[in-house]
Design goal:
- By secondary structure, the protein is mainly alpha-helical.
- The protein has one domain.
- 74% of the residues lie in helices and 3% in strands.
- Strands 1-2 form a two-stranded antiparallel sheet.
- Helix 2 crosses helix 4, helix 3 crosses helix 9 and helix 4 runs antiparallel to helix 9.
- The longest helix has 44 residues.
- The termini are far apart.
């Protein structure tokens, strides 16, 4: 009976599920809203402190932040945005560090930390980027930016004309429709890719830990814990990789919008 209760409580989706912390009227504040707010506050506090030094060459954490910023600007953004790089790089930097912070915070068991301090069950913590609504909101922001950037840089008429290239008149409506649909597909590809990868990683970790209770064997427990540690290290890599991929694709889409000749 105890084992069944433990198995029921060790749902692999438990850590990534959206849970209500409190509600006011029709408004419900969830754990993912808390994580988004926490990530925003951390970035607003930590990044200015990390780069406050006026030294020509920073050290430590500040140097790591600067290295990532330089890489994103010179190796990711500039090849696609060219002369528009400095105009749009603040958004690209913000998107990368925000997604990275959400991914990394999702690996911190904040609910267990609060429980150890207060001895009360709580719903703090969770992986916000494993919520499709969160990744969808991020993708929608990117969608709005690359369309607004295209209109701003080329004018509304020229930008819309880009959706109808020089093709025979008979197939022009079909091509225009496909171009419009493809622009919306980009939003879904950004949202689903980030959501699915973060979801899969945490489900796998939860499943590996459940093996310990299912089999009640020291060898299985040792193997499970070993794999969990290795997968956790892999999850750190995936957190950086998915933030990079989301930013990289957003940069490409902005480049396509502002440089219509490509």
């Amino acid at each position: 009976m105890v084992t069944q209760c433990l198995l029921a409580s060790m749902n692999p989706l438990e850590h990534i599920a959206s849970k209500e912390i409190f509600s006011v009227g029709f408004f419900s504040f969830t754990n993912h809203m808390f994580m988004v707010s926490l990530a925003t506050i951390l970035l607003m506090v930590v990044l200015p402190i990390a780069i406050r030094s006026k030294k020509l060459v920073r050290s430590g954490f500040g140097n790591a932040i600067e290295a990532m910023c330089v890489y994103l600007r010179e190796e990711v953004a500039r090849p696609f945005l060219k002369e528009h790089t400095d105009k749009y790089i603040p958004f690209i930097w913000s998107m990368f560090f925000f997604i990275l912070t959400l991914n990394l915070l999702g690996m911190v068991p904040l609910d267990r930390i609060f429980w150890a301090i207060t001895s009360k069950e709580n719903h703090f913590g969770g992986t916000a980027t494993a919520n499709v609504w969160v990744t969808g909101a991020l993708a929608f922001m990117a969608f709005m930016l690359f369309h607004c950037a295209g209109i701003y840089e080329n004018g509304f008429v020229n930008y819309v004309r880009h959706f109808a290239p020089k093709v025979p008149v008979l197939i022009l409506p079909f091509i225009f429709f496909m171009e419009v649909v493809s622009s919306f597909v980009r939003v879904f590809s950004l949202a689903i890719r980030l959501f699915a990868n973060m979801l899969a990683g945490h489900v796998l970790l939860g499943t590996l830990l459940a093996f310990i209770i299912i089999y009640k064997n020291s060898m299985v427990a040792t193997a499970s814990i070993t794999f969990v540690v290795l997968m956790s290290l892999m999850e750190i890599f995936v957190a950086f990789l998915q933030a990079y991929i989301f930013t990289f694709l957003t940069t490409i889409f902005i480049g396509f919008s502002v440089h219509q000749d490509h």
